[in-house]
Design brief:
about 40% helix; two-stranded antiparallel sheet; 7 strands; 10 helices; alpha/beta; Rossmann fold; five-stranded parallel sheet; about 300 residues
């Protein structure tokens, strides 16, 4: 996670809008209540969906089962590569490299919805201190389906690499949590956290392109798994148009080399709606999200 992205759900916002229409207009600058003293939160439905719905579990397991079915085909083709050409110095350099898959950690391997639930309960926003404390607890559970996939991949000689925006100082706690849920950890080197030094490559904020290039120097990357577009390719322009352009360019890779996990609780899609300006007051950011909604006539 390790970024100042606030949890949000446009679905919850849409439901709140419907409630406003039936009860009369109100200012979005002040929090609404549900009539029980509970402050409304845009992220409530999203976190509940992850924690309680059969649909979330089915979606995650579908992704990992489908990916497992592709492993043999990926291993059999020497030209199969899940890194975009710009992130591999030499396309032919994969010959002889050991096979690996790159996996994001948060909401791809580990489920951090209890942390999100705490933010809702405490009427709080994401912060590095509260996040670090949560990671130190090592209580995150595995995303449905991921352990079975990882074990199947390991049995075929595939190394699991954890390319995460958890900072490098969280490495020990993260690896301990991964081992606790049954994920294979071949060595300490399989964790490529935020702050990993990649010689000759300058990292831009939390973008992962440098660390993907580092992984590609040692491994033939068969697949990538994530819950954000930036887990697969560098997002140069974090705008709705820029993100849509990347999807159009690499859309055919999904379901073959790239595998996207559902995460409605936070992500780069949200700040793309308000010009990536977290310094704006919350009411202004929320207003920009309202304006991005499409309404039925």
């Amino acid at each position: 996670m390790r970024h100042p992205i606030l949890a949000a759900s446009l679905l919850a916002a849409a439901l709140s809008l419907a409630a406003c229409a039936s009860t009369g207009a109100r200012s979005d600058a002040t929090p609404a209540t549900a009539g029980t003293g509970v402050v409304a939160d845009d992220n409530l439905n999203a976190v509940l969906w992850v924690q309680t719905s059969a649909e979330y579990r089915a979606a995650a397991e579908t992704v990992y089962r489908a990916a497992a079915d592709q492993l043999d085909a990926a291993l059999a083709r020497p030209d199969w590569d899940a890194l975009v050409p710009s992130e591999r110095d030499n396309a032919s350099a994969t010959a002889g490299l050991k096979p690996a898959v790159i996996m994001d950690v948060d909401e791809t391997v580990l489920d951090n919805s209890p942390y999100q639930a705490r933010l809702i309960r405490d009427q709080a926003q994401y912060s590095d201190p509260t996040w670090d404390l949560w990671v130190a607890e090592k209580k995150a559970k595995a995303v449905p389906g991921v352990v079975d996939f990882a074990r199947a991949a390991t049995e075929k000689g595939v190394t699991i690499l954890y390319l995460s925006n958890r900072a490098v100082h969280l490495k020990e706690a993260t690896l301990a949590n991964l081992k606790a849920v049954g994920m294979p950890v071949a060595s300490d080197d399989v964790f490529l956290g935020l702050g990993t030094v990649v010689p000759g490559c300058e990292q831009d904020g939390s973008e992962k392109n440098c660390r993907r290039r580092l992984a590609g120097q040692k491994y033939r990357v068969l697949m990538q798994f994530g819950d954000q577009l930036g887990d697969f390719v560098e997002v140069v322009a974090n705008t709705p148009q820029g993100r849509d352009g990347l999807l159009e360019e690499y859309g055919a890779w999904f379901g073959e080399r790239w595998w996207m996990l559902p995460n409605p609780t936070y992500g780069g899609w949200e700040p793309a709606l308000f010009n990536n300006d977290w310094a704006q007051p919350k009411a202004e950011r929320r207003d920009a999200k309202w304006k991005a909604l499409e309404f039925a006539n």
